[in-house]
């Protein structure tokens, strides 16, 4: 039994009436969560699921589904969350790739899924069965969950996270971010996004009260929960944090209970962080970083300074306990401080990719006999030990001979006070082959002349070769179900003509 399961068992025994989960369907105590998850584990075993098997979870977030997810882990199997809102072809592809022994869903979805020829069990039936609990043998290398992430080949990759990595993550995050049994936590992330591990499993591991967030990430719904439930801990990816700050009227809310917000997954806007710090007097924000392959986050930068008007980007912090980062430069030399590609070692590393041996081999590099994950991210360590994130290896493009880092351009655009978020891309251009295009989100009433303002602003803060040639002003960036920007849709917008938002000019030739 993993440390996570041992903790849940202890909570059920020592504080059985403590509220564990508040969902749209039910409120579960720790005793009820233990009982329901045990029934699910027994029912799965009766259905032929064995330790080491994979069980897909194809359902929206409810208290019953979370109990089912815990039940999968109790059965010694690995859960694989499938986004129920994704296109059917994508969902079927993942189900075929993961070779799930069974699919766990809610009663309303069972008939649809059965037509796919896979063994289907509903959480309602398993909980109602009241089957006796099953024993789970200790095995820290057994897979706890598998989450699919984008593959460089265009095929999603199943990232296999073992119990040892999950337990190491919980042990590092709980003291670092201040989780405890008195916390009132809000879940904002979908199950198929790896960040859900920190805003679902970590609160349960410490015996806290967990509120499942709304299915639709509308600012008013989220902030109503934060305020009404006196939430103390929440997680919000960078774009969600900015959206809530921009559209949520934080100053009008009572956020005095809020103690910790973890953000990350994408570059966080300094203005959004400062808006939250200004509105919540007891708040500390943590800017976290970590690929899915390293169990959610391996670094966290503590941010508590109130700095109105800050535009400088925040570091991603020092490593969490148990993780280590070094840097690989272009010549193949590793150093402690960089700059270079972030190489990550420690107990939080994945076991590997599911049925992707070649990609798995490319993902790891041994440094002084220690296995490191190649992140593909570029950065360096400052004198204070905090790591700076400088973008992806593939964030660099060449336009008319000029090497341009898109992340650097994005940071320059976001220094304009009216810009909430920026997205920069190199798009096809008939005259020069490629040009830089930018989408920005701004408050209502920013003015029709904003593209011209941005042109002047970027001319002042960026080299001429790095200034975008067109600006598309949006109310909000299109997003994926995870809340991350939908890069494909944004790129499509940036390639469309925008007569009132495009500024054409000649790019200077650069040195090759």
From TrEMBL:
Biological process annotations from GO: amino acid activation for nonribosomal peptide biosynthetic process; secondary metabolite biosynthetic process
Domain AMP-binding enzyme C-terminal: 414-484
Molecular functions per Gene Ontology: phosphopantetheine binding
Domain AMP-dependent synthetase/ligase: start-end pairs: 9-354
GO CC annotation, single: cytoplasm
Coiled coil, from the record: none
Gene3D superfamilies: 3.30.300.30, N-terminal domain of ligase-like (3.40.50.12780)
CDD domains: A_NRPS
Tree of life domain: Bacteria
Database matches in PANTHER family: FATTY ACID SYNTHASE, NONRIBOSOMAL PEPTIDE SYNTHETASE
NCBIfam families per the UniProt record, alphabetical: AA-adenyl-dom
Protein name: Amino acid adenylation domain-containing protein
Organism from which the protein derives: Dactylosporangium aurantiacum
């Amino acid at each position: 039994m993993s440390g996570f399961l041992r903790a849940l068992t202890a909570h059920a025994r020592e504080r059985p009436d403590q509220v564990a989960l508040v969902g749209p369907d039910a409120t579960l105590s720790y005793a009820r969560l233990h009982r329901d998850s045990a029934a699910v584990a027994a029912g799965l075993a009766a259905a032929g699921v064995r330790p080491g098997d994979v069980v897909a979870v194809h359902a929206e977030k409810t208290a019953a589904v979370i109990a089912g997810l815990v039940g999968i882990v109790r059965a010694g199997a690995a859960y694989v969350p499938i986004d129920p809102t994704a296109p059917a072809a994508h969902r079927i592809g993942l189900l075929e790739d993961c070779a799930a022994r069974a699919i766990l869903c809610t009663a309303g979805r069972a008939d649809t899924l059965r037509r796919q020829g896979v063994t289907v069990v509903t959480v309602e039936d398993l909980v109602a069965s009241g089957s006796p609990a099953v024993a789970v043998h200790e095995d820290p290398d057994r897979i706890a969950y598998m989450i699919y992430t984008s593959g460089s080949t265009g095929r999603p990759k199943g990232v296999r996270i073992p119990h040892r990595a999950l337990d190491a993550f919980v042990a590092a995050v709980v003291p670092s971010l201040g989780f405890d049994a008195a916390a009132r936590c809000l879940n904002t992330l979908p199950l198929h996004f790896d960040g859900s591990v920190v805003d679902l499993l970590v609160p349960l591991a410490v015996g806290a009260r967990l509120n499942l967030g709304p299915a639709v990430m509308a600012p008013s719904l989220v902030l109503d929960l934060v305020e009404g439930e006196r939430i103390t801990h929440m997680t919000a990816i960078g774009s969600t944090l900015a959206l809530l700050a921009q559209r949520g009227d934080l100053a009008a809310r009572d956020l005095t209970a809020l103690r910790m917000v973890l953000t990350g997954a994408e570059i966080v806007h300094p203005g959004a962080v400062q808006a939250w710090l200004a509105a919540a007097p007891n708040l500390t924000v943590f800017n976290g970083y970590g690929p899915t392959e390293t169990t959610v986050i391996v670094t966290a930068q503590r941010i508590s300074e109130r700095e109105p008007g800050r535009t400088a980007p925040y570091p991603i912090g020092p490593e969490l306990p148990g993780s280590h980062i070094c840097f690989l430069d272009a010549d193949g030399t590793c150093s402690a401080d960089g700059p270079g590609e972030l190489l990550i070692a420690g107990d939080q590393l994945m076991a590997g990719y599911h049925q992707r041996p070649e990609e798995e081999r490319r993902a790891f590099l041994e440094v002084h006999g220690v296995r490191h994950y190649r992140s593909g991210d570029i950065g360096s360590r400052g004198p204070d030990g905090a790591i700076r994130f400088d973008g992806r290896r593939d964030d660099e493009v060449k336009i008319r001979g000029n090497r341009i880092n898109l992340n650097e351009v994005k940071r320059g655009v976001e220094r304009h006070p009216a810009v909430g978020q920026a997205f920069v891309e190199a798009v096809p251009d008939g005259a020069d082959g490629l040009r830089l295009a930018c989408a920005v989100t701004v408050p209502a009433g920013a003015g029709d002349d904003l593209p011209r303002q941005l042109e002047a602003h970027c001319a002042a803060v960026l080299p001429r070769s790095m200034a975008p040639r067109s600006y598309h002003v949006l109310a909000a960036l299109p997003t994926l179900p995870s809340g991350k920007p939908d890069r494909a849709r944004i790129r499509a917008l940036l390639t469309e003509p925008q007569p009132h938002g495009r500024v054409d000019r000649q790019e200077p030739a650069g040195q090759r």
